[in-house]
Amino acid sequence: MIKLSSEKVTLLAFCIFTFILFTVQNMAIDENNNSSNNNNNNNNGDKNSDSGGSNENVNHISISQHREKDFKENSNSKNDEEGERVEEEEEDEEEQEQEEEQEEEQDREEEEDDQEEEEEEQEQEQEEEEIGMFGVDVVKLMELQKDEDYDIDQEDQDEEVPMILTFLLDRIKDLNGFQTEGIFRIPGNLKVVETLANEGFNPEDEDLDQSAHVWSSLLKKWIRDLPEPLFSEDIIAKIQTNTVDYEFDIDNVLQSIHPPVYRYILKKIGLFFGELIQDEHYSLTKMNQDNLSVILAPTLFKIIPSANATSSAFLLDVLKNQKKEIAFVKSFLLYFKQQFINDNN
């Protein structure tokens, strides 16, 4: 058996103690390392767990984003459709408004046209009312008459006369003027005559005066009131200077009258009086070419005013001219008396 010294024993004990201490320290270090590794593993597990959660959150976020995107796309699509629909409605409303404006404009134009026509008609009616039928130039009367008579044949229009004249002549005949004693010699009621002449009358009025004398007086007044006499100053001068036994060429005188409407009027009047003085009427009316010529001469021929109207020489000239005018009217009546006979045989 080996015996060791105390020093060696002490050294050996120190070495063993150092070894044990080193071993214990290593074990402690390993244990600490294991603990650290476990902690690291746990931390890594937690991290992995967190990472998994994060991934899940990311997935959730991605899905939400897709859903939100789809929702936005759907919303945008709906908004686009709604916008298109609203735009179409606005366009339709705008077109409708434009059509309504056009219709209103057209209606307004039609109303303006109707109003203008109505105003023109009112002006024409007012003008006719203001003009009346007495004291109006024959040419003006014919212009107004032609504006109203669109259906008159050209043949009838060739010798057309004012309607007022035709009405007056027919009215006298309808009231038995050709069987009325003193027709054109006996005057009608002056007040009635003036009222009818000034205020006018409706030819279709059944309440018109029934006296032939009233209408014969109106006929004479209408002729007297013409602004231009039926016989011109040139013809009157020829009549007044006639020195051949008061003989007149009526046909030649009529052909020289212008404008033609004056000639048509004289023919119309001449045939009327030519019928009136036929023998069968004279027994009733007591009116022939002799007394009618005296009555009608002042109506057909106006006295021309003169500065020497009060002188005796002027008065003598007037009387002399009146005799010639009466003689002319007598020849005029006899001419149409024969003309009436010729036309009816």
From TrEMBL:
<feature type="domain" description="Rho-GAP">
    <location>
        <begin position="139"/>
        <end position="327"/>
    </location>
</feature>
<protein>
    <recommendedName>
        <fullName>Rho-GAP domain-containing protein</fullName>
    </recommendedName>
</protein>
<dbReference type="GO" id="GO:0005737">
    <property type="term" value="C:cytoplasm"/>
</dbReference>
<dbReference type="Pfam" id="PF00620">
    <property type="entry name" value="RhoGAP"/>
</dbReference>
<dbReference type="InterPro" id="IPR008936">
    <property type="entry name" value="Rho_GTPase_activation_prot"/>
</dbReference>
<feature type="compositionally biased region" description="Basic and acidic residues">
    <location>
        <begin position="65"/>
        <end position="80"/>
    </location>
</feature>
<keyword id="KW-0732">Signal</keyword>
<dbReference type="GO" id="GO:0005096">
    <property type="term" value="F:GTPase activator activity"/>
</dbReference>
<dbReference type="GO" id="GO:0007165">
    <property type="term" value="P:signal transduction"/>
</dbReference>
<feature type="region of interest" description="Disordered">
    <location>
        <begin position="33"/>
        <end position="133"/>
    </location>
</feature>
<feature type="compositionally biased region" description="Acidic residues">
    <location>
        <begin position="81"/>
        <end position="131"/>
    </location>
</feature>
<feature type="signal peptide">
    <location>
        <begin position="1"/>
        <end position="28"/>
    </location>
</feature>
<dbReference type="InterPro" id="IPR000198">
    <property type="entry name" value="RhoGAP_dom"/>
</dbReference>
<keyword id="KW-0343">GTPase activation</keyword>
<feature type="compositionally biased region" description="Low complexity">
    <location>
        <begin position="33"/>
        <end position="57"/>
    </location>
</feature>
